[in-house]
Amino acid sequence: MTVMKTSLRNFLAHKGRMALSAIAVLLSVAFVCGTLVFTDTMSTTFDKLFAATSSDVTVSAKSASDSGETTADNGKPPVMPASVLGEVRKADGVESAEGAVFSTSVTVVDADKDNLSPSSGAPTIVGSWNSNEARTMKITSGAAPENSGQIMVDADTADKHDLKLGDEIGVLSAVGTHKTKISGIADFTVTNPGAAIFYLDTKTAQQTLVGETGVYTNVNVTAASGVSDAQLKKNVAAALGGDFQVKTAKETADANQKDVAGFMNVMKYAMLGFAGIAFLVGIFLIINTFSMLVAQRTREIGLMRAIGSSRKQVNRSVLVEALLLGVVGSVLGVAGGVGLAVGLMKLMGQMGMELSTDDLTVAWTTPVVGLVLGVVVTVLAAYLPARRAGKISPMAALRDAGAPADARAGWIRGVIGTVLTGAGVFGLYLAAQADKAQEGSLWLGLGVVLSLIGFVVIGPLLAGGVVRVLGAVLLRMFGPVGRMAERNALRNPRRTGATGAALMIGLALVACLSVVGSSMVASATDQLDKTVGTDFIIQSDSGQLITPQAVKAAKSAPDVERVTEYKWTKADFTTPDGKTLKDTAITAADPSYATDLRTETVAGELPDAYKPDSMSVHEKFAKDHGISLGSKIKVAFEDGATAGLTVRAITSSDVVIDAGAMYTSIATLAKYVPADKMPLDLMLFASAKDGQQDAAYQSLKSALHDYPQYTVRDQTDYKEALKDQIGQLLNMIYGLLALAIIVAILGVVNTLALSVVERTREIGLMRAIGLSRRQLRRMIRMESVVIALFGALLGLGLGMGWGATAQQLLALEGLEVLEIPWPTIIGVFIASAFVGLFAALIPAFRAGRMNVLNAIATE
């Protein structure tokens, strides 16, 4: 009880000094809990949506995906004959059944040809209005569509795009463009996560999405009273045989949830990973805080020992303070996490994904995880300072000698740090020398971990040399004040090393990712320059296939010499060694693709692969299956016949663009696949007539104006798009890393604040002999800057080493250009100096306000 009272008294006595450490715990716990609440809320939202939209039993085509979405390469949804509806209605236990048609491979535009698809990446769905949809949609104005000239839109989409009754809407599908006018607007009775939904009458939906009537994509079945979904499924399946998919409401909802689970898990674990980095950085802050508090209470600890307190009691007293800090920070962090989750939901709403706070989900595990994690991390971080406090002898403490200097501990730290750093560097070397990317990635991971730990351990030893160099370059120009700032940073290398290490971790990751991202862009740009011979690339940024109407429009553009089509499909390969390879990708293109992409061959010529009944394979595939020029491969095309194709070319496997592709001609594909099953184009390649590049560029854009889902890019545009994509990804990662850097800044602030308190008497004496307030504040700011730059130098150097090694592994995949983004690196280094200045504002201000006489009288 005495230990608890002492700990509580000390905690309350130093509550101001504990505040920044508590904020670090709060931020880290809030990020973890916010991530868990946000992803759980998303799961709840989708669960409710899928449960509400699923009929008791759903029947769909055999080739449909588990969730029933469009999967056919021809851009049309997999369908079944309307006769299935009659068979279902005859099954026992069926109260009612209704046929429906829907597709997600569509684009919807307004009268100005603006794309109405969600910006969040959520699907655009066009389907038939039916009683199953009426369960989750309420018509708020107008009426449901009744003929081919009418369409109904969901209220969220209408609000975002300012759509009104009577507005013209165009539906673009693989069948063609269908023009309608809005007849009604319907609102969701459940939360809509951001999809744009449009309804046609059933006959129009069949013609617009499939190109024929008398077919359905699914049949929605309602069970009679007293019949379970499982029994109804069994009855319907027996009535239909095994040619269709039959799923209960739960199975349909689970399949839909599985589709979004992958995305949510990636987001969840990525955010938790960055929260873990923030926790790691926070450990340094807590260690520094308790180390300095212990040092400031040396005499107090000596008195406690002198009147009978044992080492264990002193140790326990410090750990109880840490426990109180962890509990306070964690409780506030859990509450902050809920607020963060709400903020993320609002942000997603701005991006087009609507999440209602009515579905806010706080599982009982979330606060438990937050509390346990925050408390455990805080207590573990305080263990070393507590252990050092227990080692202070009573007499040494009473003399204010503090913790005895342990030369042996410093020597051991140096040896361990050097060994770990050397092992990490050796791991990075082995990664750079690896022949296979998978093998090298294991060495890279080991090298990163060991080198990071090594730098953390050896940081206090590096502080002496690095700070002296920084002092000579930056601080000496400020005269005596600069020299005092340098000496203050060198006074306690362990403290400087720990404070710098906190900043080092975040900046090392920033530097590593910057090098990798820049190298990827530079390598891809280099490959484009070397291998792409076409002027323009036409594709959909959302991954939609290119409709025949858009292909025809592109080919009609003036000033364009040729347009090359590029398709992709799957087939079962039977190779000369007798092996059958299921669902193997094969690319079909026009013969001009051999000119558009200058792919290196190791045998034969690529244009020969586009001759009738011919194909190419890549080098690794040929070696694995004993294939040479003239070999025949039996190719059973998906949705088509089986062909015997002759290998006319073997391409190099050491390429980046179209790596591993196997080519045949579109004419060969058309010979074995029926016209209605032919896959649509993935992309188009266009070349301008000589000297007409600018005119062709504009004419292609004009020709595809009615198809806003497709983008025309020249090579410069394509490189910029690639750079922007990687840049957006890096910016998102930098944003998440900002949490760790904020915690590191708090560490610098806390270190300086406690250092000012620790040096109160010294500051008073310096003021007494003539040091002005301005000089004092400058000294503290310079000390902060040099500590921040110390951490930045270590972090940026370490990160560039990691990034360069990672690039060597990417070189095994063809990305051979190493590019160091010096503007980013230099910018981060300079920004670190400003971070140091910012962190010193409050400590310097407080130091300058000290009363000189009171400061001198402080013991």
Automatic annotation (TrEMBL):
GO cellular component, one term: plasma membrane
InterPro entries: ABC3_permease_C, MacB_PCD, Macrolide_Exporter_MacB
Cellular localization per UniProt: Cell membrane
Residue ranges occupied by any MacB-like periplasmic core domain in the UniProt entry: 19-238, 499-698
Top-level taxon: Bacteria
Stretches the record annotates as Disordered: 61-81
Membrane topology: Multi-pass membrane protein
All copies of domain ABC3 transporter permease C-terminal, residue ranges: 274-394, 736-851
Keywords, sorted A to Z: Cell membrane, Membrane, Transmembrane, Transmembrane helix
GO molecular function, one term: transmembrane transporter activity
Bias-annotated ranges (Polar residues): 61-73
Membrane spanning stretches: 269-295, 318-342, 362-384, 411-430, 442-475, 496-517, 732-757, 784-804, 824-845
Family to which this protein belongs: Belongs to the ABC-4 integral membrane protein family.
Entry protein name: ABC transporter permease
Organism: Streptomyces swartbergensis
Phylogenetic placement of the source organism: Bacteria, Bacillati, Actinomycetota, Actinomycetes, Kitasatosporales
